[in-house]
Amino acid sequence: MAASERAGGRNQLRVGRLVKAHGLKGGLKVELYTDDPAGRFFVGAEFTLQVPEASPWHGKTITVREYRVMNGSSVVFFDDVEDRTAAEGLVKAILWIDQDDDIDEPEDDAWYDHQLTGLDVVRDGVVVGRVIRVEHLPAQDLLIVRPTSGSGEVMVPFVSAIVPTVEVAAGRIVVTPPAGLFEDLEEEAPEAAAEASETAPEAADQDAPGAD
């Protein structure tokens, strides 16, 4: 899980995503990105909302009224969300909480964006790129990687199945990407070089002094 340094220089942790309205009294099922839901979703806990700019909730915070585990699912109720219609307006919202470094213990699988940016990306013992930024999307975080060969950027889902190891102190992450994620770019580079070498003599002939 990637944490983030958001507006105003604050360190924040992404702790959940609201995935579905539950019941008729404003409940919402939450996909957890924390190992301590009871410690995060206590009554009175306040979250910053990540929602589209068109949402009436944009730029607002939200406060927990109640947290329950129902049929194996985490369900949260918020102040001022009293019915299903209001809850549906919050589906896909991401919940962020300010982290006090003097109080909060870092979670085992949470890193700040600045810790990830600049790390080498290693596959099968070979450096294949470098992380240039982190993007936080409603479904998941993405590591944006600049490959060592080829051009462009590679979007790597920041999930344990694809990024099993993060070693900040060693300056690297280990990836096990699906076939084709980096290979396509590696194949493009030789093809582009070959095309350039084929056209170079023609350009030289055209530009040579005395050419007709």
Walkthrough of the structure:
The protein is of the alpha+beta class and 212 residues long. The chain is built from four helices and 13 strands. The protein has helices spanning 37-40, 84-88, 113-116, 183-207; strands spanning 4-6, 10-22, 27-32, 46-50, 61-70, 73-78, 94-98, 120-123, 126-136, 141-147, 154-157, 165-167, 172-174. Strands 2-3-6-5-4-7 form a six-stranded antiparallel beta barrel. Strands 11-10-9-8-13-12 form a six-stranded mixed beta sheet. A hairpin with a 4-residue loop joins strand 12 (165-167) and strand 13 (172-174). The longest helix has 25 residues, at 183-207. The relative contact order is 0.14.
Report, as a whole number of angstroms, the end-to-end distance. Answer: 63 Å
Q: Helix content range of the residues, please? A: 10-25%
Low-confidence region ranges? 4-9, 185-197, 199-212
Structural class: alpha+beta
- The number of helical runs is 4
How many strands, which pairing sense, and closed or not: the largest β-sheet?
6 strands, antiparallel, barrel
> SSE order in H/E notation?
EEEHEEEHEHEEEEEEH
Shape: elongated
Number of strands: 13
Percent in strands: 35-45%
- Using the CA coordinates, give the radius of gyration: 23 Å
Widest sheet: strand ordering:
2-3-6-5-4-7
Give the rounded overall mean pLDDT.
78
Q: Main traits of this protein?
A:
six-stranded antiparallel β-barrel; single chain; alpha+beta; six-stranded mixed beta sheet; elongated; 212 residues
Blueprint (SSEs and pairs):
Elements lengths: L3 E3 L3 E13 L4 E6 L4 H4 L5 E5 L10 E10 L2 E6 L5 H5 L5 E5 L14 H4 L3 E4 L2 E11 L4 E7 L6 E4 L7 E3 L4 E3 L8 H25 L5
Parallel strand pairs: 8-13
Antiparallel strand pairs: 1-2, 2-3, 2-7, 3-6, 4-5, 4-7, 5-6, 8-9, 9-10, 10-11, 12-13
